[in-house]
Backbone:
């Protein structure tokens, strides 16, 4: 599916086709996540539970960064 990048005020935005917005179950004003993947980017609807889990993961990775770095060797 194709989307258009456009200027919105002083920002840059992406206009989602109606079919994409319906499939994502998002509407004007909703928050979405833009996630980098090996093949590009993925757009997913905001999920408060997921956001909470990601914040917990970030805290854990920050707290245990030295151990994680050693494990990655």
Residues:
């Amino acid at each position: 599916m194709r989307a258009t990048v456009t200027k919105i005020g002083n920002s840059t935005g992406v206009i989602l086709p109606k079919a994409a917005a319906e499939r994502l179950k998002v509407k004007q004003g909703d928050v979405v996540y833009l996630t980098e993947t090996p093949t590009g980017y993925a757009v997913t609807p905001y999920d408060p539970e997921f956001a909470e889990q990601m914040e917990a993961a970030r805290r854990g990775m920050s707290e245990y960064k030295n151990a994680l770095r050693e494990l990655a060797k």
About this structure: The longest strand covers residues 32-37.
